[in-house]
Amino acid sequence: MAPSDVITVPRIAGMKAKGEKITCLTAYDWLTAGLLDSAGIDIILVGDSGAMVFAGHETTLPVTMEQMLYHTTAVARGVRRGLVIADMPFLSYQVSADRALENAGRFLKEGGAAAVKLEGGEPVADTIRRIVSAGIPVMGHLGLTPQSIRAFGNYRVRGEAQDEAGAIRKDARILEQAGVFAVVLEKIPAGLAAEITESLSIPTIGIGAGPHCDGQVIVTPDMLGLFESFRPKFVRRYAELAETIRSAASRFADDVKNGRFPSDEESFR
Ligand code: KIV
Fold first, then answer.
1. Which of 164, 176, 186, 265 is catalytic?
2. How far apart are CA 240 and CA 142, in angstroms?
3. 220-240, pLDDT tens digit by residue?
């Protein structure tokens, strides 16, 4: 891979200026990360959504620094071209700016990520400044921020009410001034996302935020149809892998039970 092909933080920023849409998918393991990377996905996000879709928790809250580091090292080993961003888990950056900087640094130093992502607006702006000033690129995350689900109480669309929309707009400006290189906008009205995208010089990456963002992200198991019970309006399924896997497993079981696997050709003499 020529160095000029590798996706860097400045290149992501430059894509907005050129009007080139940015693609982002999540990964939690080496194998999937490599497949997404070879498909040309620009950003591979080691999302804390892994707490739910990888580990089976009900929320993203339980995942730890050590678990996120483990996922990040695996993903980083699989990616040659894309920008690997690690999600900072709940309470890894809220306690103090010093602790946040130390934890963010671990994702680059030990995990092999190129950047980190964290959730929230004004309350985390000073922390973002501190991390960025150490040379660690930060991506923001506004709108529906799943680490605050216990405070929100539900996963409804954010920013439908005027005051909530105003707060998201204000937080987007604050994050840009604090130095984030991009911001995820999750589950907000398309019009609000368009307005924020237009007003910022940094790229917006939408999930459930309509078509006018500078890029789009989906949780990979959702778009692959692996997560059958969860089918939100904003996810387009590009495959039905749950059915493919179940059918393969059941054909394997059938072959074994009926003595059709392994065959002579699949055995050593
Ligand atoms: O954890 C995650 O996968 C995310 C995306 C939904 C943006 O934060």
1. 186
2. 30
3. 999 999 988 778 999 999 999
Strands 115-117 and 83-87: parallel
- Tell me the residue type at 88: M
Rounded CA separation 224/240 (Å) = 6
Q: Is the CB of 48 inside a 6 Å radius of any atom of ligand 1?
A: yes
Helix (H) or strand (E) holding 152: helix 149-152
Name the residue among 197, 207, 201 with its Cα closest to residue 233: 207
Distance 263 CA to ligand 1 centre (A): 44
Ligand 1 centroid – CA 219 distance (Å) = 6
**Residue 100: CB within 6 Å of ligand 1?**
no
Per-domain residue ranges for the chain? 3-238, 240-269
What letter would DSSP give residue 89? P
CATH of domain 3-238: 3.20.20.60
Among protein residues, the one with the nearest Cα to ligand 1's atom 1 is: 47
Tokens of residue 150, six digits: 């216990």
pTM, two decimal places: 0.97
Measure Cα distances from 212 to 19, 196, 245 in Å. 11, 10, 35
Instruction: Based on the residue annotation, tell me whether 186 is a catalytic residue of this protein.
Output: yes
* pLDDT (tens digit per residue) in 45-56: 999 999 999 999
Residue 47 near ligand 1, beta carbon < 6 Å: yes
